[in-house]
Amino acid sequence: MIRLIDILSALFGLLLGAPLLVLLWIICWLDTRAPLFRQERVGRNQQPFVLIKFRTMRAETVSIATHLADPHAITPLGRWLRQTKLDELPQLWNVLRGEMSLVGPRPCLFNQEELIAERTARGVFNARPGITGLAQVQGIDMSTPELLAKIDAEMLQRLNISQYFHYITITFLGKGTGDRVREKV
Known about the structure:
- The chain is mostly helical.
- It has helices at about 1-15, 20-30, 75-85, 90-95, 115-120, 135, 145-160, 160-170; strands at about 35-40, 50-55, 100-105, 130.
- The chain contains eight helices and four strands.
- The relative contact order is 0.16.
């Protein structure tokens, strides 16, 4: 049932959001000359897939986990895209392709070995990664691998249609700061 909702929502979002996606693509191209960010991530059953987002950092920024990124690499437009979560819209394509779900654990990088081990031990990779989930709305990011994997597993064990729509709604309303770039002190 959730997969059907994912497909219909992603299709509806891509078709209805096409003018916005095109406008954001143009604005991002003017900002960085490389509007889309593509990165190989760990998917369901630890299979690799290429995640697509609007670029929020300068094009020459090193590809690392978000919590390790230099906050000065984020462009002013990128900061706004992150705050509004509009940078995530291209991931609807990943959802439509079956690589992701709207709700699930955020996909990690293959070099995040501690998080991969924690998620493997808890069966988190049995599910599709998601655009949002319990960890994101609670502000838990990948800097705490054990806690993140624990929350991901708890979410997946309890996930039902009601919670699925709840996570989407509160994400849409701007709650949560998971996967944020941390200010350097």
